[in-house]
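Worked Example 4.2. Read the sequence first, then its structure tokens.
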Amino acid sequence: MRGLIAAFLVVILGVGCSGPQGPLRVGAKDFEEQLILAHMLAELARSEGMRAILVECQDTYGCQQAMRRGQVDVMVEYSGTASVLGGLAAAGDAPGDQRALYEGLGMRWLGDLGFDNSYEMVVPTARAASLDLRAISDLSRLEGGLRIATPSVYARRPGDGLFPLLRRYGLRLAEPPLLFDQPAERYEAVLTGRADAAVAYATDGALAGRRLRALEDPLDFFPPYQGGVVARADAVSRYPQLEGLVAKLQDRLDTATMRRLNGRAQMEGQAPAAVAADFLRTAGLIKEGGETAREAELFLAAHEGDRLSAETNRALRAVRQAFPQRSVTVVEGADPIGLLADGGARLAVLGGERFFTGGGESPERDQRAEAVAVVGTRTIHLVRRQRHDAQPLAGRIGVLPSGSGAARVATDILELAGKKPARHGQPRELLRGLREGRLDGVLVLTEVPDPEFAEALARFPDLHFQALDDRPGGRRGMVLPYLRATRIPAGSYPHQPDPVETVGSQVVVAGPAPQDGGAARVGGPAAALRTAGLPLSEAEVDGLVAASTVKELPDPVLPSPWSLSGGETRTGGAAFERVLDTVLNVLVWGFLLWLVFLLLRPARQA
């Protein structure tokens, strides 16, 4: 008997020792692209029956050390990083050079993924047009030196880092660099004027828009940074299927695809794991998994005709931060407030004009929605060929496409002056019509600075901004309530040395407004019941305000939780909500018990 037991233990121990020791450890640096790619590798490994975990090893140096110490088995690295840190030439290295380098360290370069995540120097499009900035070398013309925003790890990289870059191009800093590891923070710094330029990655999601321009690198300072997978040689031996997993990703991740995936995480606030899993499922590389425990999907409504891409991205980031357990989806329609009111959406992105119905001299406030958090401001841009025209709205005026909020605002302004739009179109088309004499002016509500306006004004120096005061109709009191007097700062656009007086309005995240003494918010089993237009709780309102990058509260003219009526209604309905919550839960539990009774009751004999 003892011999049989001993033999059994030997077999068990032998089986246990014959397989891979521990899970596959996938390393990831601390930015979205790395996390997305690491989750892809881990999910593919799990789809093959392997155990896999993520190891966040911070920056390049930390991850390289973790690989060499055996704390990480596999990770995504970049060819330029391997070249510079390995002492190879800064540019033009053959793939074989990197493979040989890693093999000498006990690692293997398993293959390229298909995208190039090179470093780039970016500036605001409008400022590039104003100062004719085309190449990195042009930054030497900035008076007083360069103010730059950069990732902290880039500031200390040798070879291809910030200070070698400055020396190579003969640039000097006006002040210490601003260190921001999140791309959104770096781009916000340059767009708000805190920095002149920012260090970017070619696959950053924010670069898909038109607000930033990448400067040329005429001295070929930056080496190529082809994304590829590197693994420890012993991990490849333990997991022979690892090379096959990497091969599944090859030729599926070009630079445009990687930029789009990064945008979902960086700009929209989606979790990197969710972005990775969705890509793999869409590509047919993994099967649909089981249901995960998460709350119901949250819909964010937007008007189908509005140009609010930047504001919508800010709203998405704020909503996902305020509701971290919810899956958030943007839905577009012709009536976003209607979607809020009937429960088709929980939140909406709205310009101030959407809270008012009618137009002209007496717009009425729509009481079905309330403004919660500010995500941006748009400003009226009036451009004419003649500078300082005595009648700014005279002649043929072009506005944005019909149906958009910006077109409605411009139309209301013209109606107050007794006029109608002469043409509807996109900014580039309207400015071309103005330049060719088919229009006398262009009236557009947009952000400052607007890239299309900046590029057009740089090409057409005979076009000028015209002041527009807060009485568009020329009579005191004849104002649109959601518009406030503001200025376009001097130098925001080419050939604009002075500030321009104009008007503007907020863009906000909105929720359903409380109706008739308060609306109930319920919990427990009754929460599964569909209810239309439930207002946000105080905690949800506070969470959205805290998550928004614009800390200003909504304009008092907009219905909001901070208005007197809104505050009283929200507070006064609390007792009613508690009573209704209790009643609904009792009814639901009673209904469920009745169903159980029917199922368990013995069947009647015939």
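Now turn to a second chain, presented in exactly the same format:
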Amino acid sequence: MDFSPKTFSVADYVVFALMLSVSTAIGIFYVIKDRKKQNIEEYLLGGRSMSAYPVAFSLSVGFMSAVLVLGTPSEVYRFGTMYSWTLLGYVLMTIVVAEIYIPTFYNMQLSSVYEYLEKRFNRLIRIEGTLLYLLQTVLYVGIVIYAPALALNAVTGFDLWGAILSTAAVCILYSTLGGLKAVIWTDAFQAIIMLIGFISIIIRGSVVMGGFENIWRACEEGGRIEFLKFDTDPRIRHTVWSITFGSGFLFMALYGVNQGQVQRFLSCKSVHEAKKAIFLNLIGLELLTGFALLCGTIVYAYYQYCDPLSYGVVERPDQLLPYLVLDIFQNYPGMPGLFIACVYSGSLSTVSTAITAMASVTVEDFLKPVFNWSDKTYTWISRGMIVFYGGICILFAYLASTLGQVLQAAISVLGLVGGPLLGLYTLGVLFPFVNSLGAFFGANAGLAAAIWVFIGSRNYPPSPEFLDQLSYSTENCPGFENATTLSPLATTSTVTETTSYTPPEANLYALSYQLYTVFGFCWTVVVGVLASLLTCGWRDRKTVDPRLIYPFFDHWIFKCLPESFRKCMTCGVNRRSLDEKNSADFNLEDPVMLKKGERTKL
């Protein structure tokens, strides 16, 4: 292996620039194509005419893409293959989202998913949900912008803030020009680039290492291959339970109740297409994550005898995969450029998804209920909001540098707010007796508990016994004596300044970052249910519009149960009134009502 300085060739810059140019061209194409259909629904929801295939591509790369490309391989390199259990979490998430959340939201013909909160509870809960979403998204997008820019800066010398600004500028440009259609079709193009990048690394890495069996053997010898850790201690970083349920709940929060993803479901031409899109998205997620895991094994096998972190040629784990690409493709001009295009495809898709969704909720949740402006005016305001939120996300990219490894930071930030938000919607969709007071107290209790644990974990990090940090070798590093050590990052991530007092709640602070979403969700649901019962929410359960409640016990799985029992479990909600409501005329004062003759598919 060669540790000499590496740089981009002219061919690499050409490939990278070509990818950015195509993304921008898609936005320009939709400006021209849809110039005569400039209304707010066309701009933010694609005219509700999208098919499942491009939406599925967009869903696959819309959130975890940049984090996935850089964070997952370094996770395998440092902690082994336990993270692969997230693939099972995706399956569980997909089934729940397809069966519960998509039908409920789609058949209400929402533009913003937070409209549901006002219909189910009140406007205050809707505003709180929207603000929580905006906070979560801005923080997360800061990580997404910063991470690939840092990787590019470290391995090619490309200016860090130049990379950050170019990422944001391209996203803002094509999102502003073409709206949601441009974002979805650009995401589809970027998903293909990501797949090509991963496959190229796997093929070339296998050739360099003399076959994938040699890669697997090296990982086994280095202790990286592990799948069966069934420990039930929630403080252990990765176990079967923490990863399966943690990733499942996290992705339920992302795909079930997050505006960025729900906006894509709502753009589909029918609820059937929306469900089809989420299952096709599952295939995309499994492929992308599986390829990222395989790339992690290649990184370890290639550097098994000389850890780049210990040797000092890279500063952060998230720079390992870019450095490997420059190593194994140094005689193939253009291939490093393709990989960096792959990384930036992930970043672009995530940022464009986020800023478009934030513009949508700002218009739908804050402006439309107050101002009676024309569609053309709202379309121009939406464009302005996309530019505004793009600028805000650039500012928050600086904050991302203080949050540590990109995968853990991303999951932590998403979980802190995603868990309480998921719990809030679950209270509304599955618990007819939960009232607005219960929802308010539940959401705030869940958010406070999650933030408390996160801040505590920064001040009192978990001890090394819970992290399962694996060892690295430097025996073949030039100028190093034979050694097997922990990465220098193990010290910085597990040891803090000596304190004279450790609080009794330190065990709670050691909770695995994978479980932040579950923790916030459980607090929200438990407190919400108890507060509703204490404030007599059960008295109003029969007055709740049945369209706002998912008919859980009407599902075919429960048809074998006695009807009297199933009726009891619906808490008295009159499901039979649905037929009458579905035949009513569409009422602008009540967007829950559907057009005359239209039947809900709940």
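Notes for the reader: DSSP finds 24 helices and two strands in the chain. Residues 415 and 516 are 5 Å apart (CA to CA).
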